[in-house]
């Protein structure tokens, strides 16, 4: 028994010590504090904002999906673990012992046995030391917290999505949310059974006796904050974008007709990991030929890309920040006549969209600039009857913000300095379209990540070639993967 205990604690010590040999370029605790202060400055007097961590989500049986923190929660705290609550007050509060505080963080409790299986937990002291919080408690303390929400004129929280699950822990997220609902809503909701929250709450500003519950304002406030990137954020976001661009470059060099879509996906994601990217920002899209006409095609199951165009929409996530870069390349290294015609048309549209990505414009401007070129070009190629013809060959918008989410939170207003957006026009001509068959199965999207500056747009992903001739030249270059081979399997 002593031997088993010794092994247990030695493994735990190794796990804890391993935390020291980790990347040091995460956002600082000062950054997260500044974001909480910025949010507090937007809150009305005598108000409180309550944020909950993302739930743990089950993949199959006793296997969960890799945990990913709610972006707002991470933005405000830097805390990456589940089953946590952040409470931010608009003004200082006075504790039972006369102490003053304006925020409380509740974290999941340290548990050596659980940490042996799922990894090191910060706990209360870790959250104080590493994240810079003063008022920190274990999550179970929230179950009996003494916050009287009826004393506040406005209680803000984000809409609940009812996707929590029971982890056999009385301080899991489902119970934390349940306690909060019972504190702020006039009609008490039933106790949780097996993690199921079966009460629908009106997701809008509503007034219950003695307390106004607001589920809309936080989205506006957080959008105002997150859409403008700070220098500290830009350092991480630029790295995510450059990693993604390098993935495109290396795959251009390695591509050949005998590859599968899955293999191409794997090469991209290997480059991401090699550069220290923890995750992909979204499911990788690798669509050859007609598969590229499916905008969010993620099966990536075609066994040989042959001579098709291959549309590759992938983005590395680096320390929480996600890029979004798309390139479309010919698997055999050379665009044919029809492929080149469509590609050049999308490129011209993207150039116009990037030029429109300036302060004072908005997503409608970048979209309109590209759409006009695409419509005129499709008409000249005989694919549509006139530039005014309504069609589905360009069915999506052209720009969205990126950041902690690939479609990052924003207010939908005009572009301002230090926003980062995508410009991504595309043309998709699926098999069976009402045009000459020679165009069928051609799909092209070109997407870059654009920083809005006072001196005009800056293409952060420019290291990945965009012009057709530049892509063809890059595809002639030797690849680090050329000599990589594995034994054949039956």
Descriptors:
about 500 residues, alpha+beta, seven-stranded mixed beta sheet, three-stranded antiparallel beta sheet, 12 helices, about 30% helix, globular, disordered N terminus
Write a structural description.
Residues 2-18 and 188-204 have low confidence and may be disordered. This protein has helices at residues 2-18, 29-42, 71-77, 112-118, 123-131, 173-184, 217-226, 231-254, 261-274, 337-355, 363-380, 468-474, and strands at residues 47-52, 58-60, 63-64, 85-94, 100-107, 136-138, 154-157, 206-208, 211-214, 279-280, 285-288, 309-314, 316-318, 321-322, 325-330, 420-423, 426-429, 442-445, 448-451, 458-459. The protein has 490 residues and is an alpha+beta fold. A 7-stranded mixed β-sheet has the order 6-5-4-1-7-9-8, with helices on both faces. The chain has a 3-stranded antiparallel β-sheet with strand order 10-13-14. Strands 11-12-15 form a 3-stranded antiparallel β-sheet. The chain is built from 12 helices and 20 strands. It starts with a helix and ends in a 16-residue tail after the last helix. Helix content is 32%, strand content 17%.
Overview in brief:
Helices cover 32% and strands 17% of the residues. The chain has 490 residues and is of the alpha+beta class. Helix 8 packs across helix 9 and helix 10 packs antiparallel against helix 11.
Mean pLDDT across all amino acids: 91
CA radius of gyration is 26 Å
**Mind describing the biggest β-sheet?**
7 strands, mixed
| Individual helix count | 12
Distance between the termini: 46 Å
Low-confidence stretches: 2-18, 188-204
Shape: globular
Helicity, in percent? 25-40%
Order of strands across the biggest sheet? 6-5-4-1-7-9-8
The percentage of residues in β strands lies in 15-25%
Structural class: alpha+beta
Number of strands: 20
């Amino acid at each position: 028994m002593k031997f088993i205990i010794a092994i247990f604690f030695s493994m735990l010590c190794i796990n804890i010590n391993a935390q020291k040999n980790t990347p040091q370029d995460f956002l600082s605790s000062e950054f997260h504090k500044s974001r909480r202060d910025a949010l507090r400055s937007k809150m009305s007097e005598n108000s409180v904002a309550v944020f909950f961590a993302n739930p743990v989500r089950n993949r199959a049986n006793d296997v969960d999906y890799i945990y990913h923190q709610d972006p707002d929660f991470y933005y405000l705290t830097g805390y990456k673990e589940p089953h946590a609550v952040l409470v931010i007050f608009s003004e200082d509060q006075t504790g039972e012992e006369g102490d003053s505080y304006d925020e409380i963080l509740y974290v999941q409790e340290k548990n050596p046995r659980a940490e042996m299986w799922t990894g090191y937990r910060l706990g209360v002291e870790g959250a104080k030391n590493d994240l810079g919080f003063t008022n920190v408690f274990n999550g179970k303390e929230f179950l009996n917290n003494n916050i009287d929400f009826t004393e506040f004129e406005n209680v803000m929280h984000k809409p609940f999505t009812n996707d929590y699950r029971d982890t056999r822990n009385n301080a899991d997220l489902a119970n934390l949310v349940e306690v909060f609902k019972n504190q702020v809503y006039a009609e008490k909701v039933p106790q949780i059974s097996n993690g199921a929250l079966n009460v629908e709450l009106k997701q809008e500003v509503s007034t219950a006796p003695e307390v106004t519950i607001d589920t809309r304002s936080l989205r506006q406030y957080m959008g105002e904050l997150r859409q403008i990137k700070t220098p500290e954020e830009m350092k991480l976001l630029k790295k995510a974008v450059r990693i993604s661009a390098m993935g495109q470059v290396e795959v251009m060099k390695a591509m050949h007709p005998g590859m599968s879509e899955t293999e191409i996906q794997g090469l991209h994601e290997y480059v991401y990991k090699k550069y220290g990217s923890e995750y992909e920002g979204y499911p990788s899209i690798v669509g050859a030929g007609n598969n590229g006409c499916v905008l969010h095609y993620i099966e990536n199951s075609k066994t040989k890309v042959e001579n098709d165009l291959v549309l590759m929409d992938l983005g590395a996530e680096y320390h929480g920040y996600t890029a979004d870069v798309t390139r479309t390349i010919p698997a055999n290294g050379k665009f044919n006549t029809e492929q080149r015609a469509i590609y050049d048309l999308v490129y011209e549209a993207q150039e116009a969209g990037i030029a429109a990505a300036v302060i004072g414009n908005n997503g409608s401007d970048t979209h309109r600039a590209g759409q006009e070129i695409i419509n005129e070009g499709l008409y000249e190629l005989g694919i549509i009857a006139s530039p005014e013809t309504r069609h589905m060959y360009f069915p999506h918008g052209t720009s969205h913000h990126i950041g902690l989410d690939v479609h990052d939170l924003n207010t939908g207003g005009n572009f301002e300095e230090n926003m980062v957006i995508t410009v991504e026009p595309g043309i998709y001509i699926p098999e069976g379209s009402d045009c000459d068959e020679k165009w069928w199965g051609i799909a092209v999207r070109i997407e870059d990540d654009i920083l809005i500056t006072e001196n005009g747009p800056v293409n952060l992903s420019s290291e990945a070639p965009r012009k057709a001739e530049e892509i063809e030249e890059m595809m002639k270059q030797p690849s680090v993967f050329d000599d990589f081979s594995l034994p054949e399997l039956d």
